[in-house]
Amino acid sequence: MEVIAASTDTIRLSFLMALLRDAGLDPVLLDQNIAATEGNIGMFPRRIAVASADAAQARRILQDAGEA
Question: Concatenated DSSP letters for 24-55?
């Protein structure tokens, strides 16, 4: 797995996950449990990871969407 994005903005993360899923990739949102620990104040970024074989394609997708 390779991390391709990180953000504290949950809306942006949802958008990025949707972009990747629409392209047929299977992204994973990491660090979801930290939200419960921090009380959802947005202090710690969540990360999006994809399989290493899909990382280059995922980065292109995000770059084409202006999100790289």
Answer: T---EEE--HHHHHHTS-S-S-EEEEE-GGGH
